[in-house]
Amino acid sequence: MRIGIIGSGGIGANLVRKLSAAGHAVQVANRRGPRSLTELVTRPGVTAVTLDEVGRDIDVLITSIPFARIPDLRPVVARLPRQVPVADTSNYHPRRDGRIAEIDGGKPHGVWIEEQLDHPVVRAWNALLQTTLADKGRSKGAAGRLAVPVAGSDPAAKEPVMGLVDDTGFDPVDAGTVGDAWRMQAGTPAYCTELNAEQLRKALALADHDAAMVRREAALAIIASWEPGGPIFEDIVALNRAAAGLHRLFD
Q: Which of 27, 30, 163, 193 is most exposed, with the fewest beta carbons within 10 Å of its own?
């Protein structure tokens, strides 16, 4: 498959590595330009391109940039045929993105992104940490394989993205429409809690919209209070699981 990826941070770079290793042809672009992508283009099947070039002659575009910058991509997405899915990995973090009134008012992230891009969007890989993506993928059918929720309103767009999730080493779980994607946002039981497919389906069903917003703010405040140098990812997973009460169900 021919894939374009915008963004080379923790999630974007790991998707380049995983998907190229799975045999896909990957274009990667970021704001800094191709010269900043030297390490990634050493991998077979990876080409560094500019933002003006990315998305030409591809089957799927993956966007992996800070949430508040999504509207900047509208000119890039406007070049795509409508049948080319846009898979977005971003998450709204007010401390980084600033406050977005519509999101704070309860609009699902995926719905907001679709409105900004005027293009069908599939939400994927946003509900796992970059370290989980990098280190915890397993081959299909392997014991202990973790799962990733995928939400989108167009089944034809969602299907190839679910296949790519599988290629990165995780079981794809259908999380419903883009309007249902709030069930995999920060503060929900499905968000960065490292569950298998059966557990993830239960976690999606347990999601409570109002509680999720409270838990998100509380978790971010706790993480911000930790010592400089940053927590290890196991601490973040444990915090998310505890906030959602998953220890009572799955531990």
A: 163
Q: What is the 3-state secondary structure (H, E, C) of 51-111?
A: CCCCCCCCCEEEECCCHHHHHHHHHHHHCCCCCCCEEECCCCCHHHHCCCHHHHCCCCHHH
- The tokens for 113 are 């992104």
Instruction: Give, for 206, the enclosing helix (H) or strand (E).
Output: helix 197-206
- Model pTM greater than 0.85? yes
Terminal CA-CA length for the chain: 38
CA distance 14 to 35: 18
The β-bridge relationship of strands 121-123 and 60-63 is: unpaired
The total of structural domains in the chain comes to: 1
Q: pLDDT digits over 191-242, tens only?
A: 999 999 999 999 999 999 888 888 888 888 888 888 776 668 889 999 999 8
CATH number of the domain bearing residue 160: 3.40.50.720
Instruction: State how beta strands 2-6 and 25-29 pair.
Output: parallel
Per-residue pLDDT tens over the stretch 103-133: 888 888 899 999 999 999 999 999 999 999 9
| Identity at 117, one-letter amino acid code | L
Question: Is 241 a member of any domain?
Answer: no
Residue listed under structure tokens 């992230």? 109
